[in-house]
């Protein structure tokens, strides 16, 4: 959850990415703090971040995480299990 909260902070600080996040999630600015502890909301934060490799790289570079960290963190949150279709 810590990485997802860091991702939310990174998204909120980026003037280009943040408006896209607000639009994509339908979240109001006033509810971000309240929802920051909600595992399902944090899963949505990581889902959003993972949509664009450039965002993943920029976030990981800024926070000192390996590029695989957001996907690993997403797998640990609700709905993050990778489906095996075989």
Describe this protein's structure:
The structure is a single chain. Helix 4 (39-49) packs antiparallel against helix 6 (69-75). The protein is mainly alpha-helical. It has one domain (2-75). Helices cover 63% and strands 0% of the residues. The mean pLDDT is 89. It has helices spanning 2-13, 17-25, 32-35, 39-49, 53-63, 69-75.
Summed up, the domain count is 1
Question: What would the average pLDDT be, to the nearest integer?
Answer: 89
Question: Could you give the count of β-strands?
Answer: 0
What is the strand content? under 5%
- Described by the principal axes of the CA atoms, the overall outline is globular
H/I helix tally: 6
Question: For the report, how would you describe the main beta sheet?
Answer: none
Terminus-to-terminus distance: 30 Å
Radius of gyration: 13 Å
Unreliable stretches, pLDDT < 50, 5 or more residues? none
Structural class designation: mainly alpha
Q: List the helices and strands in order.
A: HHHHHH
Oligomer: single chain
Helix share, percent: 55-70%
Helix-strand blueprint:
Layout: H1 2-13, H2 17-25, H3 32-35, H4 39-49, H5 53-63, H6 69-75
Q: What key phrases describe this protein's structure?
A:
86 residues, mainly alpha, 63% helix, 0% strand
What is the structure about, briefly put?
This protein has 6 helices and no strands. It has 86 residues and is mainly alpha-helical.
